[in-house]
Write a structure and sequence with these properties.
alpha/beta; Rossmann fold; 3 domains; six-stranded mixed beta sheet
């Protein structure tokens, strides 16, 4: 039965008291009255009654004797942890050995108190409840944070997919519409140039042809950056093309080492690896002040590994943590999307960007490896 000790407007602490001594129960109530703790306390003295009250719920804390007929307070705690894992429990005993007290605390009991120190009971109860509430709040916060991270990851994945689709659509429009129109204009200008007799007109036509050729080259370059058709020939070919284009554009030396001339890599992983290499080379051109770059590409041991290393000035920790380093953050999100991971290491001697992605076709890769020259990069 519920026995109100004190009734006021404060929130009452609901206590389930497991005790086989009515005298000790009365002493507990008296101690709580003296401490002016507003509470309702319900006495049970058997495991069956204890289980029934736990299942009914509505309690803030369990207060249990250690030595009980046929069972111990630790046995009661094990049942409480099973039925109500979030309910704090305090062992209150007349004689509990140090070993038993240590075991109880190790098992997760909130606290223990000797019955001859009853004046501290209210404080122990309040502290146990406060710690329990703090843990619950932290658990809720952790759960909300995990859900938030999951939603952010899903949003990032959606954005990356949308961006790639948009890039493909724009590249297609450039190829079909702008590229076609420019090619048609070039043919017409060539026709005019062949029939023009005025020297000044021929000079203007030649100038227009040069500008038109520049526009055609720019449109092709933009189209290739948006969605390079070279990816259709495989990842190795795409990385070689990217390296050659970067070397031609920047004048930096780029060495590409690969474990095979062709690699059996899923299309989505190919795109992640290509974009990683593209972003890494962009960072080299913008910030590294490097003299050369090395790209290592391997599919050995069922893991695709792409490493882009430069011999530039490196990046400080603040560069990796700065608020607007979305390129690096985007690379990590891309890697996570295909169950991979990205490592970035930097020193004054240079920077390495390493992408690792497990491949599902590990057995096939192993067989392919045997066909290669073991331990040799082409």
């Amino acid at each position: 039965m519920n026995l109100p000790i004190e009734s006021d407007e404060r929130q009452q602490v609901r206590i389930l008291h497991l005790e086989d001594s009515r005298v000790d129960h009365a002493l507990v109530k008296f101690a709580l009255q003296r401490s002016q703790l507003s509470c309702d306390i319900n006495l049970v003295d058997t495991m069956d009654d204890f289980q029934r009250e736990l299942e009914a719920g509505g309690y803030d804390i369990v207060l249990a004797d250690y030595h009980l007929p046929g069972f111990t307070g630790l046995d009661a705690w094990q049942l409480s942890r099973t039925l109500r894992p979030d309910l704090p429990s305090v062992i209150l005993s007349g004689a509990i050995g140090e070993a038993a007290a240590v075991e109880a605390m190790h098992e997760g009991v909130s606290d223990y108190l000797l019955k001859d120190n009853m004046q501290r009971l209210a404080h122990v109860i309040e502290r146990a409840i406060e710690v329990s509430q703090t843990r619950k709040a932290k658990a809720r916060a952790d759960e909300e944070l995990a859900e938030s991270r999951q939603r952010l990851g899903e949003l990032a994945e959606h954005l990356q997919t949308s961006i790639e689709q948009e890039r493909a659509d724009i590249a297609r429009e450039i190829h079909d519409d702008i590229g076609g129109a420019l090619a048609a204009v070039k043919l017409d200008l060539a026709w005019v140039g062949r029939r023009a007799e005025d020297v000044e007109m021929k000079r203007h036509v030649a100038t227009a042809m040069e500008m038109l050729q520049h526009a055609l080259g720019a449109s092709q370059r933009i189209m290739l950056n948006l969605r390079p058709p070279i990816l259709d020939q495989g990842l190795v070919a795409a990385v070689l093309w990217l390296a050659a284009n970067f070397e031609r554009r920047t004048g930096l030396s780029v060495a590409v080492r690969r474990s095979a001339e062709t690699m059996d890599v899923p299309r989505e992983v190919q795109l992640v690896a290509y974009r990683t290499a593209q972003e890494a080379l962009t960072n080299v051109a913008k910030h590294a002040q490097a003299r050369s770059v090395q790209i290592d590409l391997s599919d050995r041991e069922g893991v695709l590994t792409l490493e882009v290393t430069d011999n530039g000035r490196g990046m400080g920790p603040e560069a990796l943590r700065k608020a607007k380093s979305f390129g690096l953050l985007g690379l990590k999100e891309r890697a996570a999307k295909v169950d991979g991971w990205l490592d970035i290491s930097s020193s004054p001697k240079g920077t390495s960007v390493i992408l690792s992605v497990p491949l599902n076709n590990g057995d096939d890769n192993t067989n392919k490896e045997d066909a290669h020259d073991p331990g040799h990069f082409v």
